[in-house]
Design a protein that fits this description.
The protein has 642 residues and is α/β, with parallel strands linked by helices. The protein has 25 helices and 15 strands. It binds adenosine-5'-triphosphate and magnesium ion. Adenosine-5'-triphosphate (ATP) binds next to strand 4 and strand 5. It is found in: Membrane.
């Protein structure tokens, strides 16, 4: 029968499949018996107990009984978790094999067994029963029993499998670095394997100085080593050399608790940090150490296995990969995706877009309310501080609910201030939004100052125009309090919506229609309110009756409103123009660099003839035979990932 063995452990899967090639076929569990065909002969084993894997213990075992009635404990796990418990077998040779495999970056496991006597089994059964039924400290008691049983082992050998990197891992890590994100690798793997994988993943690079803090079991020795590395890291740093720190779980036990601050300083001097042989709890502790540092960075943890859950929960942002190691990481994460390379798109593109959307949304809410309600404050000075409202209660109530809500709502979902390809091609753009840059005091003040300016223009503009003996109507009627409020209000509503339009770069259909829908909806709603005589029970004072129609049907008032909106939005228009000119300049500079590189690549011996750095934009124009949109250039851009 054809079958596929499924397991959350890649080693197990590889092992079972490899055995199959040697005609040792595992058929699964049937009636409580494990069925295995050995070279054509079926054998059955009774599965008595499973001592489950846990990443702190780093090993697991099964207890089985064969057809002859012999009972064995079969154990597999990390070499550090098993070899110390071995009393028989080729211990040294196995260790040598494991180390050799690890230097190739392979994922290793050591296999061992123990034959159990009747006495052992009875003792174990009793202890296990006791631990499993215990109401207090069950986990610890179980760990004690497992520890007791997984002893006096006979080592059988080691397995090694290639733990393939997912596609585009080096490219993703490089992009994150360029985006100013510090990448740390925290793994349960063996030191050699982890270092090797770090090189192949581009986490470590040739030329980096490796600083190793490994296999230190004493706190004082650990402090010494950290201090020593600190000095050499500082020297390297001042000489412009890159440091790469490698630290293992054993050392971290002392370093984290006793010398956390200096360890953190050391880590800050390193461009890459690799923590290996970590338990899940230690992974979380490392995240905590960084999170609570002086500059309180924002942390994100990404993982695919159950052993990553605690760090995913500890970090500000938890990211889960839907991998082969089960769904625990995904279930505990804030965001989940299927491949590591999507991290790039998620952070650099969606992260960037959403940050801009959210920060604009927050600033815009403050701004539009300042622009609106400050007029009421000004009005107090002209109404003898009488608490007379400038705006009708309908206007007051619906300002945030309908008059200025829909466009900003859709903006915060769909806005794309830059082209997607630009954000992905230039990871360094991400630096512009790190550390909550758009919600700093500077931006907050800028937005609110504009809000204040708008309120000044709207209120005093309308007030001065209505002042004196001027009438806007043919019959010579003068303006009243409610009309003043209405003109200020409608001017304000139009201006804050146009202001959002000036902030918008991506005029997608939803955003466009949100403006039309909001406009039609608000006009309809106001007409209904002001045009009908409502029963007293619903609206008792209709001071505003018919006023809206008088207002919107008066040409001179419209002229006045348009003039005020233009005056109020002048600074915004100026800011938008400057930003756009800057953007276009940057884009054209980037295109020139690309073209220069393209030409330099095409020209024979270009390196020696025209140094790239010296090709300034006007010079590149001399060589340009292709337009910026040429297919060759586009494919070059894709290939070089610029
Ligand atoms: N199912 C398993 N059975 C026995 N031993 C295992 C099993 N899974 C992992 N191990 C051993 O325990 C060690 C630690 O496992 P852990 O899951 O914490 O880390 P990892 O899978 O090696 O790396 P990562 O942290 O990157 O997932 C592994 O290196 C391996 O030697
Ligand atoms: Mg794992």
């Amino acid at each position: 029968m054809e079958y596929e063995y499924q397991s959350s452990s890649p080693d197990e899967k590889a092992f079972v499949e490899a055995c199959r090639r040697y005609a040792i076929i595992f058929h699964g569990l049937k009636d409580g018996m494990l069925e295995i065909t050995f070279k054509g002969k079926m054998k059955r084993y009774q599965q008595l107990h499973v001592l489950e894997f846990d990443p702190t213990r780093k090993r697991m075992s099964v207890i089985i009984k064969n057809e002859e009635g012999e009972v064995y404990l079969l154990c597999k796990g990390a070499e550090s978790a098993i070899l110390d418990r071995v009393i028989e077998g080729e211990k040294q040779i196995t260790l040598q094999h494991v180390n050799e495999f690890a230097t190739y970056g392979l994922r290793t496991l050591v296999l061992a067994q123990r034959k159990l006597s009747e006495k052992d089994i009875a003792l174990f059964d009793a202890k296990l029963q006791d631990a499993r039924t215990s109401l207090q400290n069950r986990e610890e008691k179980l760990a004690e029993v497992f520890d007791f049983m997984e002893n006096e082992l006979h080592v059988l050998g080691a397995t090694a499998i290639e733990d393939k990197l997912q596609e585009d891992v080096p490219k993703t890590i490089e992009s994150l670095r360029m985006a100013g994100i510090k990448v740390w690798v925290l793994t349960g793997d063996k030191e050699e394997t982890a270092v090797n994988i770090s090189y192949s993943a581009g986490h470590f690079k040739q030329g980096m100085t490796e600083l190793r803090l490994t296999k230190i079991t004493d706190s004082i020795e650990c402090a010494e080593a950290v201090r020593r590395h600190m000095i050499s890291a500082e020297n390297n740093f001042s000489q412009g050399k890159h440091n790469a720190l490698i630290i293992d779980g054993t050392t971290l036990t002392h370093a984290l608790y006793d010398h956390g601050d200096i360890l953190r300083d050391l880590c800050h001097l390193c461009v890459a940090v690799l923590c290996c042989r970590m338990s899940p709890l230690q992974k979380a502790e490392v995240v905590k150490l960084i999170k609570n540092g002086k500059d309180a960075p924002v942390t994100a943890a990404i993982g695919d296995g159950a052993n990553d859950v605690s760090m995913i929960q500890e970090a500000h942002v938890g990211l889960g990969i839907m991998g082969k190691e089960g769904r625990q990481a995904v279930r505990n994460s804030d965001y989940a995706f299927s491949k590591f390379k999507f991290l790039n798109r998620m952070l650099l593109l969606h992260g960037h877009f959403f940050y801009i959307r959210i920060s604009t949304l927050v600033n815009y809410f403050f701004y539009k309310n300042v622009a609106f309600i400050t007029a009421q404050l000004f009005y107090m000075f002209f109404s003898a501080f009488s608490q007379q409202s400038l705006f009708d209660s309908f206007y007051l109530m619906f300002y945030n609910i309908t008059f200025t809500s829909l466009p900003i709502f859709l903006y915060s979902l769909f806005e794309q201030h830059t082209k997607q390809s630009t954000l992905l091609e230039q990871p360094q753009l991400y630096k512009k939004i790190t550390r909550n840059r758009k919600l700093t005091k500077k931006y907050f003040i800028q937005w609110n100052a504009l809000g204040l300016w708008h309120a000044v223009v709207f209120f005093f503009g309308v007030f001065l125009m209505f002042d004196g003996d001027i009438t806007f109507y043919k019959d010579g009627k003068m303006m009243g309090n409610w009309m003043l409020g209405s003109v200020v209000y409608i001017t304000c509503v139009l201006a804050v919506n146009i202001k959002l339009g000036l902030e918008t770069y991506y005029w997608s259909a939803p955003i466009f229609f949100s403006y039309i829908f909001a406009f039609v909806g608000n006009v309809a709603m106001t007409s209904l309110y002001t045009g009908l005589l409502w029963p007293d029970l619903i609206i008792s004072h209709q001071d505003f009756f018919h006023l809206f129609f008088v207002h919107v049907s008066c040409g001179p008032i419209w002229l006045c409103m348009i003039l005020l909106i233009v005056i109020a939005l002048l600074p915004d228009i100026l800011i938008r123009c400057i930003t756009d000119i800057q953007k276009t300049k940057n884009d054209s500079r980037r295109n020139h660099i690309l073209i220069a590189k393209y030409i330099a690549m095409k020209m024979p011996h270009s390196d020696s003839t025209i140094p790239l750095k010296e090709l300034s934009p006007p010079e590149t124009e001399k060589f340009v035979t292709t337009s910026d949109d040429s297919p060759q250039l586009k494919s070059f851009v894709q290939k070089t990932n610029l």
